């Protein structure tokens, strides 16, 4: 059985994805866990091997501005002509992990 913090739950936070070629894309979160995130973006990763993700997060009236360095693991064109991008967390601070844990626990 998965623990609340290892679960992958639906998420609707918005934010920005920064590619290594200088492009910044608006994204919204589809699913999140304490180890990875799946987002929807208007275009693909364009060869980026490490990306910066900034999220405007909200949970139970509390807000957070979460910054994460991520390793891309999946980039596919979905049925909405957008890209579904799965990212593994590379670098994230403990305070942001705790916010995500609380969000997951509240949606499990």
Automatic annotation (TrEMBL):
<protein>
    <submittedName>
        <fullName>Uncharacterized protein</fullName>
    </submittedName>
</protein>
